[in-house]
Write a structure and sequence with these properties.
There is one protein chain. α1 packs parallel to α3 and α4 (60-73) packs antiparallel against α5. The radius of gyration is 14 Å and the shape is globular. 72% of the residues lie in helices and 0% in strands. By secondary structure, the protein is mostly helical.
C-alpha cells in the first residue's frame, strides 16, 4: 500500500508515533501504530515502525511478527527497501538466530549492494 492512499489523519498518526519511538518513547508509539496497521493492514511502513517500537520495549514475539509482516509486504513497494532485512537480521542476531540473520543480510545486499 502506498503512503498516498492513507488518509491524512493516519499518515500524521504514523509520523507522530515514529517520532515518539525515535525520541525514546516507544511504548507510547505502539498504540497509534497498531491502530494504523489495523485500519491499513497492507501498509508496509506501519508494520515496520510497529516492529521497531515493539523491539525497543523488549516484546520480541510481537516484534518478530510485525517484522515478518513488513517483510511480506516489502516486495510490493514501488521502491525496494533493504533496511527491513538488515534491521530484522540484527534483531535475529540479538536473539541468537544467526543462520536466519545471515540469510536476511544476504537479501538486504541483493536489494542494495551499496
Amino acid at each position: 500500500m502506498a503512503a498516498d492512499s492513507l488518509e491524512r489523519y493516519d499518515y500524521s498518526r504514523l509520523f507522530k508515533a515514529r517520532e515518539l519511538r525515535r525520541r525514546g518513547s516507544p511504548k507510547e508509539a505502539i498504540e497509534p501504530l497498531q491502530q494504523v496497521v489495523e485500519q491499513h493492514s497492507a501498509f508496509y511502513l506501519g508494520w515496520f515502525n510497529l516492529a521497531l517500537a515493539l523491539d525497543a520495549i523488549g516484546d520480541s514475539g510481537a516484534a518478530a511478527d510485525a517484522y515478518q509482516r513488513a517483510m511480506q509486504l516489502e516486495p510490493d513497494q514501488a521502491e525496494r527497501d533493504a533496511s527491513i532485512y538488515n534491521t530484522y537480521g540484527h534483531f535475529l542476531c540479538r536473539n541468537q538466530q544467526h543462520q536466519e540473520a545471515l540469510a536476511l543480510f544476504d537479501r538486504a545486499l541483493a536489494i542494495n549492494p551499496a
